[in-house]
């Protein structure tokens, strides 16, 4: 499907009625000029990818600067345009978001295991502005939609990255719907035979289950209405294909053991309503023993909350039912992104404090934040854990404590490089050796072969124990050598 500038402007106007659409047009013209003559493997102009990425961010209810950054996200990587030029035209916030995406792009592919570890580190680092991750997700989703046009080797690599790196990160951030989309789009390219098998095996079963669930939804609606449940919605939810595949592997590939091919999801206003509805359902239909799960009292590690139960219908069929509040639903679908979704959608419901999981603790940060900037700073503190992640010129990621300097970086790379540090370049600009590094910095050390070793002053600059020990060891050896030399000169 082709996305046009008018499509993007239309959805932005829906999501952000007060947004300056002239800035969208300027960003489009800027990106179109920057990508002039460039085409994708599919043959379409490159600007199509930029539009699709920005459009996807808008559908995710991202804020206006993030959408603009999505439109511009590949400009510095693919062209000679600098971050300073972007900042001049679109402001510091947009330029910083684009720079964050560019830094992620600098990580080099050197085998899935090493690449995966580097990407995971950089995703953690970029959590200082989590919107960078959203842009990267939107970018990846569009790339997956055009994966068929790439050479087979690239198809495999991108599909594997998506399932083994991007999807788990989305899941950790509580973004269940996005995780499933990443997995389902990558599945046929990474495991084509398994994909075909699952689709064929489940096709007839899903249709049969859908009819059972549709009938059951009518009966559920009647039962809840009779019991004066005033505000609720009940609808069917089809299991995602990759999620089904993973479950089949756990169930000996036996489709008859899968009860949630099509499940019922009931959404109610408050937590107490969840338990009230569960009681009504169990009073009307016989529950299957051992299938009742209370993820409200004990959320999953990523913050997921719902009540799950499985019941026998009047016809003897088996149906799984999930019960959750609207807030739980937004958290399950959008995860951390629910902050922006909730703000733009005008939802005022608070997440309960009791039994909060990791994600919900992050979501709770917004309660005390007066604006997006404060919320993002809180996210940085919560996720960052006093660590920074910087890049080498070869694209490797180095993990250092907050406050680390180029000298710490040099000693982390190699002892001799540390001893002979001559000068440091941060983001391709010369910098003082006592400069405090920041996550995402590209650091290069120029070696000075004429340097005899570290200065004693460096001990007041470095932050890492390793650097201090190596400097102290060198200085101690130098002192011993001077003493020995002094004694050797005596007649």
From TrEMBL:
Domain HD: 46-144
UniProt-listed Pfam families: HD_4, RelA_SpoT, TGS
Residue ranges of domain TGS in the record: 386-447
The protein's annotated pathway: Purine metabolism
InterPro entries: Beta-grasp_dom_sf (IPR012675), HD/PDEase_dom (IPR003607), HD_domain (IPR006674), NT_sf (IPR043519), RelA/Spo_fam (IPR004811), RelA_SpoT (IPR007685), TGS (IPR004095), TGS-like (IPR012676)
A biological-process GO annotation: guanosine tetraphosphate metabolic process
GO CC list: plasma membrane
PANTHER family listed in its UniProt record: GTP PYROPHOSPHOKINASE, GUANOSINE-3',5'-BIS DIPHOSPHATE 3'-PYROPHOSPHOHYDROLASE
Known role: In eubacteria ppGpp (guanosine 3'-diphosphate 5'-diphosphate) is a mediator of the stringent response that coordinates a variety of cellular activities in response to changes in nutritional abundance.
Family to which this protein belongs: Belongs to the relA/spoT family.
Protein name, as recorded: TGS domain-containing protein
Originating organism: Candidatus Uhrbacteria bacterium RIFCSPHIGHO2_12_FULL_54_23
Lineage of the species this protein comes from: Bacteria, Candidatus Uhriibacteriota
